[in-house]
Each structure stands twice: as structure tokens, then as C-alpha cells.
Amino acid sequence: MKYQESETVELKMDHSESIPKDIIAFANTDGGTIYIGIRDNGEVNGVVSPDRMIQRIANAVRDTIRPDVTMFVHYDTEDTGNAQLVRITVSRGTGRPYYMAEKGMIPSGVFVRQGTASAPATEAAIRQMIKDTDGDSYEDRRSLQQDLNFSYATDAFLKRGLELGRTQMITMGMLTNEGIYTDLALLLSDQCPHIIKAAAFSGTDQAVFQDRREFSGSLLKQIDDAYAFLEMRNEKAATFEGIRRIDHPAYPEAALREALLNAVVHRDYSYSASTLINCYPDRIEFISAGGLVQGFTLEDVLMGLSICRNPKLASVFYRLNLIEAYGTGLKKIADSYIEYAPAVLFQTSGKVFKTTLPRLPWTGKETVSRRDHNEDRILSALTGTNTITRTEVEHLTGLSTSSAVRLLKRMVEQGDLIVTGGGKSTRYRRFSR
After folding, report:
1. pLDDT band at 133 (very low <50, low <70, confident <90, very high)
2. Which of 134, 147, 46 lies closest to 95, judged by CA?
3. Which of 144, 239, 356, 359 could form a disulfide with 345 if both were Cys (CB 3.0 to 4.6 A apart)?
4. How many angstroms separate the CA atoms of 173 and 386, rounded?
């Protein structure tokens, strides 16, 4: 038999440190065979102790290649009549990309077969192998970067009485059973490559900057930093009833919080574009990469349909009490504006989702809103000794439960209503001055 190197055949005179690299290349490409005991020119010399050679190579493969490729590697001997050869048959693996453990999933650690050589794979080829193996879900894919730290995330979990160890990471999908970090872990790590860019402008366009910020690190840190920035932009006006001061924020706090969380939790992280927050004198815009999940419309979501591009990331946020339930964010944003004249605006395309929160108009005396009308309706219904429940207020005004609760709380604070009873028996009656 004539032996010759090719895209699927590698010849080795003796044991070589490069054999694991060749096994990786075959497993990452279309498989192949390595013969030991043959020179590059095809001359057969043989191996003195094939069994010992096989054991040595098998140990090296087990110790140096990740993930485990042993089920795709078969060892045997071939007798040419004049000499014995070691034959290593490698099949295309199902856990690609395979890589040298000491290098990781970077070009210097991942190899593919090109002609008669085992060459480093490009980053694009590595990403494609990960996608082919792990599927289209970004958060489930193995991270190209494995040298990760979780100082901010660990502290965030501890503040809520939770642990963030190996067991928890596996349960949440941050770590595979083989100890490989996923892209979900990358998002929560201190090394997260995605950032939030925030800017404030002096006019209604982007001609003149007032302030620029970039928030990096763990997504949990970015959310904290970005919300602190938004709080600074959320100026409060005040009115007085007697000696009591009543503050009126420029934007509903619930809307700011939910718009920020929605932009972070639901964005498509397979794009490298940054999440944007643009603050203008009359509005704040939240722009994130990735439109709605394919097949769903904005109307579907606003009607309460729960669809999540990153369910495991959302689950982490749920554990940390950052979100209450899936699919409620946009409704909460809309509800927080239901009492006011300006309407929140949601826009989407195939690649972008944008939320625009209008600044609440403030005349110096009162907020332009529908709340006076709702207050008048409630007070008109409360003649004499009549009382009213929160459910009855919802029916009377058409407000959601959360908006009705806020309206009743405000009317109590203003001194218009008095609370009687408690729990399910809570009722409200008009305060007689």
C-alpha cells in the first residue's frame, strides 16, 4: 500500500507533540487518519512498541483536548508485513470546535484541516462551528472567551441572599457540565464586550451634546450605572398643598426602569452594536439591537403575548428581582403613562427596537394629564357616606390595577380620600373638610 499525505491523511515518523493538534483538525473538519511509523515521503519505518505508543497518545488526547473528543478517536495497529504502524482514525466530532485546553477557543488553540496541513482556524470559522453545534440561541453558545470573572455579579447575588457558585451557574446555563462558560456567562461577567452608550443633548436633535457616558462591565453593573444616569436626568418639579411639598418627576420612574430593563434583556447580542440611551429636553429614547422575535408583531406583544429572545438572561434577572414576570415590561411602561396626555411610543424594525418616553408637560402649576378628570369622577361617586373599592375605581375610570392603586394613593396623600378597612376589605371614602 502506498501512503501519501492528503486532506484526510497525516503521516508521522514517530510520536510527536503535534499529534493532538492534528486530531483536533480532523475532528473539526471532515475526519481523517493519522499513521505513525511512516516518513513524509511515504517510506515505512514502523513503530517498535505500538501498544505503548497508543497509550501515550490516548493519555495526551484525554488531557489536552477540550471538549472530550475520545469517542471520536479510534486506535489500532496495521501490519504492513515488514513493519507495524499505529493507525489513529478520527471522525468529525459533534462538539466542535475542539481545541487545546491550554489555549482555549481562540485561533491558536483551534485547528482545521487545510490541504495537507493542520492550520489555526479563523475567529469567523470558530464562531460558525459554535453556531452549528450549539444552535442559534446566543446565550446557549459556548463563549469564545473563557477567562472570565464575576465580581460584580457575585456581589449582586449576595446582596439578595443568593449564591453564584459552580452549581448555580450550571443550573442557570452559565456553565456547561464540562466546565465551559456560555455566552450567558460572558454577558454577566466583568469582561462583557457589549456596552450601553448614553448621551444628553441640549436640543431636540443630536446637534449639541451636553453629556456622554459609556457603561461597561457586567450587564448588572451597566444597568445600575445607566439607571443612575437616568435618575440625574429625571428632574422633579414641585407644588405645595399647604406646607406639604408634592414632587412631580419629568418621567415616570417605572417607565424609565422598565424601558432600560427591556432594552437590555431583550436585545439581540449576536450583533456588536451598543444599546443606546438618548436624552433630549422633550423625550428619552432607548434603542437596542434586534427587533421582535421573528413571526411576532408589536401588537402581539402589547396585547400581553410573552416572547423572550434571551429566556435564560431573563430568568437571571427574575431571580434578582429586577423583573417581575416575562412579557409585562411594555405593558408597565404604557400603564405608567395612561394617566397622562403624552403617549409612550414603541417602534420596531427587523434589526432595532426603540422605546420613546415623552417628558411629562409641566406648566408650573399642574401636570397636563387626565388625572383631574379621573379624580373628579371618583369624588362625584362618593357623595354622603358612600365608599368605593379599588376594583370599582378600575371599572369607573378604565385604569389598570397598578394605575388605580397609584391614583388612590395620591388622592389619599392629597387629603381627598380616607382609607377604611384593610386587605380585601379596603375601601375609600371622601374626606369631609
Report:
1. confident
2. 134
3. 356
4. 55
Q: Where are the alpha helices (DSSP H) in 38-165?
A: 50-64, 123-134, 151-159
Please answer whether residues 192 and 219 qualify as being in contact, where contact means their C-beta atoms are separated by less than 8 angstroms.
yes
Q: Give me the DSSP letters along 321-388.
A: TS-SSTT-HHHHHHHHTTTBSS--EEEE-SSEEEEEEEPPPB-SS-B-BSHHHHHHHHHHH--TT-EE
In DSSP notation, 237-306 reads EEEEETTEEEEEESS-HHHHHHHHHHHHHSS-TTS-PPEEEEEETTEEEEEEE--SPTT--HHHHHTT--
Q: What is the pLDDT of residue 241?
A: 65
Classify strands 352-358 and 345-348 as parallel, antiparallel or unpaired: antiparallel
pLDDT confidence band for 380 (50 / 70 / 90): confident
Could you report the per-residue pLDDT of 43-70, keeping only the tens digit for each?
999 999 999 999 999 999 999 999 999 9
> Where along the chain do its domains lie?
9-134, 196-358, 371-430
d(CA 270, CA 263): 14
Residue 367, pLDDT above cutoff 50: no
Within a 10 A sphere around the Cβ of 271, how many other Cβ atoms? 14
Superfamily of domain 9-134: Schlafen, AAA domain (3.30.950.30)
CA pair distance 373, 432, nearest whole angstrom: 20
For residue 194, pLDDT over 60 is answered with: yes
Instruction: Compute, in degrees rounded to 10, the torsion defined by CA atoms 394, 399, 402, 404.
Output: -50
Residues in the chain: 433
- How many Å apart are CA 97 and CA 108, to the nearest integer? 12
> 227-264: per-residue pLDDT in tens?
999 998 888 776 666 667 667 788 999 899 999 999 99
Domain 371-430 carries which CATH code?
1.10.10.10
Say which amino acid occupies 121: A
Q: 196-358 adopts what CATH topology?
A: Heat Shock Protein 90 (3.30.565)
Position 403 scores a pLDDT of 76
- The number of helices, as runs of H, and strands, as runs of E, in the chain is 14, 19
What are the distances in angstroms from CA 147 to CA 24, 143, 174, 185, 220? 21, 10, 13, 11, 19
Q: Do 170 and 177 touch, CB atoms closer than 8 A?
A: yes
CA triple 153-157-163, angle to 5 deg: 110
> Rounded to 5, what percent of the chain is helix, strand, coil?
35, 25, 40
User: Residue 210: left (phi > 0), alpha (psi -120 to 50), or beta?
Assistant: alpha
